[in-house]
Amino acid sequence: MEEVKLEKVAEISSGLVLNRFSSDQEKEGEEYIYITLKSVEGNKINLELLEYMNMQRKVQERYILHKGDIIMKLAPPFSAALIDFDLPNLIAPSNFAIIRIKKDFDAEYLSFILNGKLIRRQLNRLVEGTILTIIKISYLNELKIKQRNKKEQIKYAKILSLLLKRRELKKMILELEEQLMNNILSNL
User: Fold this and answer.
1) At what angle are helices 107-114 and 150-186 packed, to 10 degrees?
2) Domains recognised in the chain with CATH numbers
3) pLDDT mean by block of 10 residues, the chain; 188 residues
4) What is the pTM of this model?
5) In three state form, how does the secondary structure of 86-143 look?
């Protein structure tokens, strides 16, 4: 199977430096929603952990996230997540990379691949020996991924998505059982 560099299938850029655009909450400005480091974990974005900010001026379109974009943390654990929802004025701060598919690749599939062991090993080699482990955009461009046809990508993305949902449901069951146990014990 042929390997291809990430730069061949996606356009990669860094997020927005928020302090350059932010304004006092008192002043009028356009409100934007930004993704926090805590909100991205395990190929998912927790919408409850997003933050709001007023901006002095309009943010350039290249920083606005849209459904189908992928974001990736530039610091450990280098988690990637697919934007699978529509939210106006959603932006990624500078500690994230914005990855936009430009070729015959499925975005959901690529987001799973970016969270896989092969990519983690490549990233660890690229940042090895540095004190502060931060990925440069040029490092992301050099990542090698296996190229599959689009039908296979979609099939694998569906399977991985279902497994992720199943894991989330199992976690929820455990939490509910724990609550039930605590309620029973508190009434004894």
Assistant:
1) 60
2) 3-149 (3.90.220.20)
3) 90 88 64 91 88 86 93 90 92 94 89 92 76 82 91 95 94 96 92
4) 0.85
5) CCCCEECECCEEEEEECCCCCHHHHHHHHCCHHHHHHHHHHHCCCCCCCCCHHHHHHC
